[in-house]
Design brief:
Blueprint: E1 4-9, E2 22-27, E3 36-45, H1 50-53, E4 73-81, E5 91-94, E6 101-105, E7 110-112, H2 129-142, E8 149-152, H3 158-169, E9 173-178, H4 181-189, E10 195-198, H5 204-211, E11 216-221, H6 226-232, E12 235-243, H7 258-266, E13 270-273, H8 283-295, E14 303-307, H9 312-320, E15 327-331
Parallel strand pairs: 8-9, 8-11, 9-10, 11-12, 12-13, 14-15
Antiparallel strand pairs: 1-2, 3-4, 3-6, 3-15, 4-5, 5-7
Bound molecules: NADP nicotinamide-adenine-dinucleotide phosphate.
NADP nicotinamide-adenine-dinucleotide phosphate binds next to helix 2, helix 3 and helix 9.
Length: 338
């Protein structure tokens, strides 16, 4: 790993991401300047929203410029440093990109202090963006009250499974919607949800009626499309819908039925989109709480790791076809210092 392998976005994907959308270059390992550190990327997180960054249209980030190293959410280790706050060996979270090495000023590198009982990879996923999104989306946007019914889509995923378990801790009736029997069983057995709906098996409307006999007070929406419509058809008066993401539309397309949206009017319901960055002020408090829950076994999670940058298109395919089991990561190098 003396040089730097860089994945640059060559073309804007049409539909699903393919290897042909990238140019892979061998470059020299970058050298840190004054106040900077050299970081060896260990984990690259491959969230569904990475697909949105590749579009020409601005999402919550500016469009990824063509011909430049693809942006990427990473966890790495400092291997050379020109800043006293970042000694060699410090683990850091950063936007290190789809490459092996990364140089950044100290203020763009967030030190990570892993707890002995928690895998390092958790600090870039459940104890970072995914945890903050789940916790703040549920508690602040849905504003739950014990005894109410919460439906979660992509419920076995990284964000969704945390939402389900936090919902149970808050005394909610939690109904998880996921693709396939295996994911549904995991939600019941490991995450302790009250009911599951395998949307791939069909009959979602009837299953919602059975699972939510008192109607639906909250929806934590990760997917969008027809299942979301069926949930909206069944919301109670003053329901709260946290719009976290619409993963079914990220590769293009996606529609919502107008009569389902009309339920927001019919039921004086509130749908509110949010970004985890709106809640960064609570980062330390929320991740500490989640770490405690993970250490005492009160929160279960999955992390799905593939080896090597070459697996980037496969990782994206897994996320959009539901083959991932929890947060999808690529391992770019070993955790131990070189
Ligand atoms: N607002 C924010 O700040 C914020 C932050 C982080 C994440 N998010 C959003 O949170 C959601 C979940 O993200 P995550 O990282 O936790 O991913 P994830 O749930 O671990 O993985 C994505 C899952 O979505 C489901 N899915 C993918 N394509 C689908 C389709 N066409 N139709 C139905 N289901 C589909 C699959 O689950 P099944 O096998 O069950 O279908 C897949 O496993 C995404 O919408 C993401 O954009 C938002």
């Amino acid at each position: 790993m003396s040089g730097n392998t860089e994945w640059r976005l060559r073309a804007r994907p049409r539909g699903e991401v393919t290897r042909a959308d990238f140019e892979v270059l061998s470059a020299a390992r970058p050298v840190p300047g004054a106040g900077e550190a050299l970081v060896r990327n260990i984990y690259l997180f491959v969230p569904p929203s990475m697909r949105l960054w590749m579009d020409e249209k601005e999402s919550y980030l500016p469009p990824q410029p063509l011909g430049e190293v693809m942006a990427g959410i990473t966890l790495g280790v400092v291997e050379a440093s020109n800043h006293p706050s970042l000694p060699v060996g410090t683990y850091v979270n950063c936007m290190g990109g789809c490459q092996q090495w990364h140089v950044a000023p100290a203020e763009r590198l967030q030190p990570v202090t892993p707890h002995a009982g928690v895998p390092l990879a958790a600090y870039r996923t459940v104890l970072d963006v995914q945890g903050l999104t789940a916790y703040c989306g549920l508690t602040e946007i849905c504003q739950p009250r014990a005894g109410e019914t919460l439906v979660v889509t992509a419920a076995a995923g990284s964000v969704g499974s945390l939402v389900c378990q936090i919902g149970k801790k808050l005394g909610l009736r939690v109904v998880g919607v996921a693709g396939g029997r295996e994911k549904c069983d995991w939600l019941l057995e490991a995450c302790g949800v009250d009911a599951v709906i395998d949307y791939k098996a069909g009959g979602v409307g009837e299953r919602l009626d059975q699972a939510c006999p008192d109607g639906i007070d909250m929806l934590f929406e990760n997917v969008g499309g027809p299942v979301m419509d069926l949930v909206l058809d069944r919301v109670n008066r003053r329901a709260r819908i946290a719009l976290c993401g619409l993963v079914s539309s990220y590769n293009g397309g996606g529609t919502q039925r107008t009569s389902a949206l009309m339920q927001l009017v019919n039921k004086s319901a509130r749908m509110e989109g949010f970004l985890l960055t709106d809640h960064y002020g609570r980062y330390a408090e929320v991740t500490r709480k989640l770490e405690e829950w993970i250490l005492d076994g009160g929160i279960r999670y999955q992390i799905d790791i593939l080896d090597g940058l070459d697996q980037l298109p496969e990782a994206m395919g897994r996320v959009f076809h539901g083959r991932n089991r929890g947060a999808q990561l690529l391992r770019l190098s070993q955790e131990e210092r070189t």
